[in-house]
Write a structure and sequence with these properties.
- By secondary structure, the chain is an alpha/beta fold.
- Helix content is 33%, strand content 20%.
- The strands form three sheets. It has an eleven-stranded mixed sheet, sandwiched between helices. Strands 2-3-7 form a three-stranded mixed sheet, with no helix packed on it. The protein has a two-stranded antiparallel ribbon with strand order 12-14.
- Helix 3 runs parallel beside helix 6 (145-153).
């Protein structure tokens, strides 16, 4: 079995259109959550709050990718930019990542697919009786998205789309990890993306009580993961990708190594089609399995990047799952407090967050956190300001509709244990 390391990262978020800008703003505790008139064609009360990516002009800002624009949904534009950054970051001064392109795979995670393009085309058809976009077949179904990225980076290995709920981007990275560890690939470009902010999607989450109904005057303070005042999730958008490769391959080409993926697991509650099991037991099983594969005890974990949507049920179940597996006091956090929930992009973005924490030592703040609800949070530590810690081992947890659960363990590359 191969050891698997991460050698390139890329992020597109409401807090920055590249990893450096995004990380700087994350550590500042900036929030992009604000009132929006995105759904002005219908009267939604109270006024929606969203974390939208502003000032994003694909053609002008990323002209080297413009040949692909006619094939891209908004979410895939984010994805191609993030994938391009990760690829170039990994490439470094080399002229290629792998000598044999069939050793190079691409994995894409998405929850909502090309929902922006589908919604726009549906409205056009209703109004005109015609489908005006002759490239909608590329924009809406995500089946062609890995192939498009592969065309750009000249990858000729396995291509895969993952659509398992809101942690699709994390499962994409997990699937790539499995292929490289087993020796079926040497390199993979993997991540997630979504642009889920369309009327029908927003209303569907409002209808089940998951999206926040904020009636205050300070939207940047509305998303409150783990806090007793939490009232629901905020829609965001974005993408993140990373390059994974076997350690042997990375060392042979003298690649910069950010971190090592040690363990990965998923599980299903089989209980409810929407919310996670309140016991957190199957989620805890995924954590235990990932720790077992990593070969470390739970008390080695220095920090957990949580799914942390800010809903009552998600945060309650997640803290229970973590404490079932990690009995010692543990630091947890959620950057969704600043940039909302970007669906298929979220888990991938949060894995990059862990990679940056391992690289720099900084744990980002979970802004707006005050106190836990009665009976919650025992043994969990949440910082509402950035903190410096010498983190060696970190854990990513995530969940999605239907009680699907994910856990991933990463190790800092400079860790000498």
């Amino acid at each position: 079995m191969n050891r698997v390391v991460i050698t390139g990262v890329g992020v597109v978020s409401s807090l920055g259109l590249n990893t450096g800008e995004w990380w700087k703003n994350i550590l500042k505790g900036r929030s992009t959550i604000s009132f929006s008139d995105k759904f002005k064609e219908i009267d939604i009360k109270p006024q929606p709050i969203l974390a939208e990516i502003a000032n994003f002009n694909f053609k002008n800002q990323f002209p080297h990718l413009s040949q692909y624009e006619k094939y891209l949904d908004r979410g895939m534009k984010f994805g191609l930019v993030a994938a391009d950054e990760a690829f170039k970051d990994s490439l470094g001064k080399n002229t290629y990542i792998t000598e044999k392109n069939n050793d190079f795979g691409v994995y894409v995670g998405t929850t909502t697919g090309g929902i922006c393009s589908a919604y726009t085309s549906a409205r056009e058809y209703i109004n005109s009786g015609e489908v005006l976009d002759d490239k909608i077949i590329y924009k809406f179904p995500p089946s062609s998205w890995p192939a498009l990225i592969a065309h750009h980076v000249k990858a000729q290995g396995k291509l895969q789309v993952v659509g398992t709920s809101c942690y699709a981007g994390g499962e994409s990275i997990g699937a790539a990890f499995r292929e490289i560890k087993s020796g079926r690939l040497k390199v993979a470009l993997a991540g997630g993306l979504d642009a889920p902010i369309v009327t029908t999607n927003y209303l569907s989450f409002k209808n089940i009580g998951a999206a926040i109904s904020y009636e205050g005057e300070k939207p940047a303070e509305a998303c409150r993961p783990f806090s007793k005042e939490r009232g629901g999730m905020v829609f965001g958008e974005g993408s993140a990708f990373c390059v994974l490769e076997s350690l042997e391959h990375a060392l042979a080409r003298d690649a910069k190594i950010y971190a090592e993926v040690l363990g990965y697991s998923v599980s299903s509650d089989g209980e409810n089609m929407v919310h996670p099991s309140r016991t957190g037991s199957r989620w805890s099983d995924a954590i235990d399995s990932a720790l077992n594969e990593a070969g470390i005890s739970s008390n080695k974990i220095d920090f957990v990047s949580c799914h942390g949507t800010g809903t009552i049920l998600n945060d309650e179940a997640e803290m229970r799952a973590i404490k079932k597996s990690i009995t010692s006091n543990i630091r947890i956090g959620s950057i969704k407090s600043m940039l909302g929930h970007s669906f298929g992009g979220a888990c991938a973005i949060e894995i990059i967050q862990l990679i940056k924490t391992l690289e720099t030592g900084w744990i980002p703040p979970t802004i707006n956190f005050t106190n836990f609800r009665t009976g919650e949070g025992k043994g969990c530590i949440v910082n509402n300001r950035k903190e410096y810690h010498n983190c060696k081992y970190v854990l990513k947890t995530a969940t999605g509709f239907g009680g699907s659960n994910l856990a991933m363990v990463l190790k800092g590359w400079d860790c000498d244990e």
